[in-house]
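User: Modeling request: complex.
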Amino acid sequence: MLVRSTVAAARPQPFLPAATTESRRATPRPVPTKPQGPGGDGFEPGKPTRFDGLKDKALVQALRDAFAKHKDLGYNQARKVIFTELDNHDGKVACVYTGRELRTNKIPNGSDMNTEHTWPQSKGATGVAKSDLHHLFPTDSKANSIRGSYPFGEVKNVKWTQGGSKFGTDEAGRLVFEPPAAHKGNVARALFYFSTVYNKPIPAQDEAILKKWNVADKVDVAERTRNDVIQRHQGNRNPFVDDASLAQRISDF
Amino acid sequence: MADLSALWALVPGGSGVPLAKVGGAPEPVGTLRWPTCAACGMPLRFLFQLPHVPGRLDLSPWAAVYVFQCENPDTVCFRWDAHAGANTVVAVEEGSSAEEGARYPGPPYAEWSLGLGPAEEDTEALSVDVNEATDEQLAALDRALEQAPESKVGGVAGWLNGDATPECCEAPMRFVAQLAAMPFGLSFGDNGRGYLFRCRREGCATPFRFLSQGA
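Assistant: Request completed. Predicted assembly structure:
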């Protein structure tokens, strides 16, 4: 299998094997009892980490060094993982924006449900980043089309809404997309990861809202489990899921 | 694969193909009735037109097709959907040039001519069923998608976010062309593409359909 690395330097880490067909079918799916691989030793509850004492650019650099390197699955393999394992729970895949569920055991028709790049391709999610599971989520194709590449924000004047998601203008009159409350923190931590690993800035007005969402919608078991499963496939973790307080120590992504 | 049309890249700024263009105002080869959105009623915005080019782009019996989509800033009409009525392909037969109906009230897209250039793509890799494919075939599909022309007529549809071939008259439609949003600045979602399909049944009332797909 083709293995490619992202540009950032990182200490060599063995990739964990991808799930076997059998393990993909298991419910509940097996997850590591302890985070392993890049950075995994740094986030055991109550224990000090090698990122303690770091903040701002020094922290971003340290996180990039530790978490950027990963296996490039390729986009279509990534889509297969999403719909058949990562986000398939008991034979159903739910849209993260609308909550609509689709019963499937395969990649669905693209006009029904498809794959959302939380960090848009048109804003830099290309190459290896296009296939990075940490910011890819299953979405209803209509909701994905409505979000397009609009920034995330808090909608004041609603033009469209479904399942807790909203699209419309914010207080400043910008067209923005607001995910449902239960996915806001996931969006924030996915974007913090992307910004850190791929060295892409987050506009200040977006960052303030994302940090608010990061606090309001805390990491839950499902998000931790997703992080574990992604690590098994592509060999790296999202540190902002392992320790949500990291984002608050970075003043300018 | 036997019914694939010949592949040609659509070249932005190219020449030699009269009437092939993106943006500006449509140039009717016959009577063109400006379409409106089935959802909001607003006149649709003109996107691009393609002419029948014997031996290269078969649109017969029509002389050209004109593609529009809803860009009403006050609504969220499903313009990416082949069946929602928020986009339209107007097929025009050769005749006296005429335009009917109200035009889109906003500015047109910037005008680009389009040429047809020779191109190659890995038809076998692009045609794979992603749900039956091996890991190697999925990797080959990724490579083929990157190497194939982003804008083209003929060949295999290069899906950004999974096969979404529309159906008409109870059968999958035949792929005609695709156009990338860039460099034209068209609103096809995130880094998107628009896809033009043709019904396989002669005499169908909606012989062409259009959809777009973003990442």
